[in-house]
């Protein structure tokens, strides 16, 4: 959620950022509406403070009059205080109404893109920030897509998932299951070695948590909802892990706070059909290791690049062809100020598959969660939050199976062999 002070004091930057997101004039006009409401809120607060001060002064005066035996004068002032209390109640109600209106409008507005975010409306307009420095190798003539490899070597089954649950819920088996577990362990070990504290969070969160990281109201239609308990299945570990610090005030000496978590993730992905979502390309349940950082605002962009380097290092160790994209305004998430997407090249499908997003949300989530730190100047300030997939397994598995296939099996990357216990499928 944007800070009103940013909308008021940096309006030109906010408008320019919204234009990068291709928002219409109505969305931009909301900025003036928010400022006008905030002006009214301040005016009501000033009146309220004045009346409260007057009421306190009169109450003291009434006490002195009673002590002096001036009952009639005291009774007259009591009537005035009673009238002030009615006015106070009206002003308090109006103040709350205005605050609620401002918050409702703020919740509908996305984050302001960083100055480095390129203009654009579609994924085709994203910038290639960095790419793999080797040639993409060619597969043998009889190479198969990962869904055919899965059937050939009995690694996972989508039909069994349909039988148990529905479309988009794969069942991993045998060496396919062991490869999945090996990747999770590898990613977690790499994260903890990089200084991230491992967390095992709940897979269900309440409305406050989903709102705190920006999934509500923006992404409510993509989340699985348990109506009876008013709980949501998590779309990413980012939600529960970041919310560990909701309503928190931390010391500047605690920053950065670095956390990692493995969780299954659940996304409805409504409207996802066709060849682009075949096999593991897009599923409703998938495993992911997430990294989350709470950081000082002055250091968050340096930390973002450190996180980008961390994810790149994972792909290098897996020897997967990759590229890093800086997302344009039109393709960037609602919460993000700057996002780098990682894609790996699927050699059998001959297409790029997104496997990670690494983002800086600046104070957008922290403002929703009231996540602050006490700075060296003694003032409480909003922290910056960052997160990244390190990594999402479904498409990593798809790419590993396809890119490492030979005529007589699938070769396991060397870095994973101590986790799988085998070198080849």
Can you put this structure into words, describing what you see?
With 425 residues, the chain is an alpha+beta fold. Helix content is 43%, strand content 20%. It is built from 13 helices and 18 strands. The strands form 5 sheets. The chain has an 8-stranded mixed β-sheet with strand order 1-11-12-13-16-10-9-4. A 3-stranded antiparallel β-sheet has the order 5-7-6. β12 (338-346) and β13 form a beta hairpin. 37% of the residues are buried. The mean pLDDT is 93.
Which features characterize this protein?
elongated; alpha+beta; three-stranded antiparallel sheet; eight-stranded mixed sheet; 425 residues
Please sum up the structure shown:
This protein has 425 residues and is of the alpha+beta class.
Mean pLDDT score:
93
Give me the side-by-side strand order of the main sheet. 1-11-12-13-16-10-9-4
Contiguous helical run count = 13
Largest sheet: 8 strands, mixed
Estimate the global geometry from the Cα principal axes: elongated
Number of strands: 18
Spatial gap, N to C terminus = 48 Å
**Taking Cα atoms only, what radius of gyration do you get, to the nearest Å?**
27 Å
Specify the structural class: alpha+beta
Strand share of the residues?
Answer: 15-25%
Give helix % range: 40-55%
Instruction: State the low-pLDDT regions, or none.
Output: none
């Amino acid at each position: 959620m944007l800070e009103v002070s940013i909308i008021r004091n940096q309006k030109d930057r906010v408008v320019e950022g919204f234009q990068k997101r291709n928002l219409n004039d109505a969305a931009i006009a909301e900025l003036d509406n928010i400022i006008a409401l905030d002006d009214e809120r301040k005016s009501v607060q000033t009146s309220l403070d004045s009346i409260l001060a007057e009421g306190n002064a009169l109450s003291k005066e009434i006490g002195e009059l009673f002590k002096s035996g001036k009952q009639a004068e005291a009774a007259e002032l009591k009537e005035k205080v009673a009238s002030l209390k009615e006015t106070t109640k009206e002003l308090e109600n109006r103040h709350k109404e205005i605050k609620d209106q401002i918050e409702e409008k703020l919740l509908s507005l996305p984050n302001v893109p960083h100055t480095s975010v390129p203009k654009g409306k579609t994924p085709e307009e994203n910038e290639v920030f960095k790419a793999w420095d080797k040639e993409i190798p060619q597969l043998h003539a009889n190479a198969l897509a990962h869904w055919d490899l899965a059937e050939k070597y009995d690694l996972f089954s989508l039909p069994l998932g349909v039988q148990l649950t529905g479309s988009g819920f794969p069942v991993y088996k045998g060496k396919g299951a062991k490869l999945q577990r090996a990747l999770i362990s590898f990613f977690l070990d790499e994260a903890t070695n990089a200084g991230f504290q491992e967390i095992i969070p709940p897979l269900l969160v309440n409305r406050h948590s989903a709102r705190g990281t920006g999934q509500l109201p923006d992404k409510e239609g993509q989340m699985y909802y348990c109506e009876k308990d008013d709980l949501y299945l998590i779309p990413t570990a980012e939600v529960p892990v970041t919310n560990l610090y909701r309503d928190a005030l931390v010391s500047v000496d605690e920053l950065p706070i670095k956390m990692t978590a493995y969780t299954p993730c659940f996304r409805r992905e409504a409207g996802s059909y066709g060849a682009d979502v075949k096999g593991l390309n897009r599923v409703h349940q998938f495993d992911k290791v997430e990294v989350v950082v709470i950081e000082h605002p002055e250091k968050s962009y340096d930390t973002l690049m450190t996180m980008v380097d961390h994810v790149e290092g994972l792909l290098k160790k897996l020897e997967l062809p990759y590229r890093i994209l800086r997302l344009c305004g039109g393709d960037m998430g609602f919460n993000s100020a700057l996002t780098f997407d990682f894609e790996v090249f699927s050699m059998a499908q001959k297409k790029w598959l997104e496997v990670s997003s690494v983002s800086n949300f600046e104070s957008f989530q922290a403002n929703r969660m009231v996540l602050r730190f006490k700075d060296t100047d003694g003032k409480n300030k909003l922290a910056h939050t960052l997160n990244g997939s390190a990594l999402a397994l479904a498409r990593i598995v798809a790419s590993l199976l396809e890119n490492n296939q030979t005529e007589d099996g699938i070769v396991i990357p060397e870095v994973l062999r101590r986790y799988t216990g085998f070198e080849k499928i």
